[in-house]
Amino acid sequence: MLWENGHMSDDPKLCILPWNQLFVSNSGAIYPCCHGPASLMSAKDESGEDLYVGNPGTITRTYSADYFQKIRKDLAAGVENKTCQYCWNRERAGIISLRQSVNKDFEELYQKLEKNHPAVPNPVDIRILDLRLGNHCNLACRMCAPHSSEKLLDEFKEMTREPQYISNLRFDWFKSKWFWEEIFDVSPNLEQIHFAGGEPFLIKEAWNFLKRLVKERDTSKISLSFNTNLTLIPKEAYELWPKFKEVKLLISVDGIGPLFEYVRYPGKWATLEKNLQEVENNFKQLNLTEALIGCTVQAYNFHTIPNMCDYFSQFKFIGQHMDFNILEKPHHFSIANLPSEHKLKVRSELKLLLAGLINDGEKHLHYLNSIKYLIDLTKSESDPKEWRQFWRWTEFFDSKRNQSWQNFLPHFEQYKI
Asked: Where are the beta strands (DSSP E) in 36-146?
């Protein structure tokens, strides 16, 4: 397989994830990867019921499910299965997709898959774990939802007038002893573990699993990564992380200073800054090889992207180039539905940012393409109905949190409906 500028030059459709990864969503449903939930198509059993982890044998059954077989057969035949639409869209925009990234990181495994890609792997050989550990979180971010943070549940119940909202879902699946036992049994060749949440640093079961791996496996061959809000740095990080091959962080930051506190309520900017500096100062001691800033690009922070890029350029070890996650749902917080005049202003600022980076184009091609992609998104049509919903939710959150958009987004006054 040939690689050019981080892309697969022959552009096959194969992806190792449906063969060698286990992804578990916040509610315990199993998908091919982290972008699968957007397709609303989780793995199902013979009766059509969703397969949830936590019961004995679920993981092995999942790998032979018709749903997974169909994805594997399509990718092996070069067909763009619709479950994988997120990656196809990014690749067409010139942005490195998750598919391309993992295939490159696990090139030996990919080459093996090129030669033999069975519809049902036998035996199950999980090399990558991606676990979204329920919805236990200490923040209630405005663009988020109860399936990722239990702190939003009461507000959503009141706002949507649906008292049974997500009450039938299982967000404590990670407390099942069966799950951790089966994971340990079916992953003797485990190479990579990714934890997200909720807030994974709060989940004792995840730390206990890492302790067991350190005790019973050669963890020098296992890489760790975390999606975290970095509101805390547990002592276990200093104890356990150095015993693994490497550790990577994706730190969620959606604004600077007061705007951070407005969007990521009840987070405190001073706490985050302190913890960012601790990561920067103890980068090697924590066995970190990467710490990226992940920004969910949304209506609240679109105008601040250039300033955020400038702020994070000060760090030496923490990644100077941000990773952008474009919010699509809920639609009313999407940048697509910002007023056209506002999008044009941001577009001009992004073009200035792009011009300043253009000299390092080849060195930071992915970052440049991400900025270009943001610029292209400013051309989208706005939906007035969704913009009215933006104000409805914004003022509702303000009333519940003793906040006021005028203090954080004064320039929105001209766009108020």
From this structure: 128-132
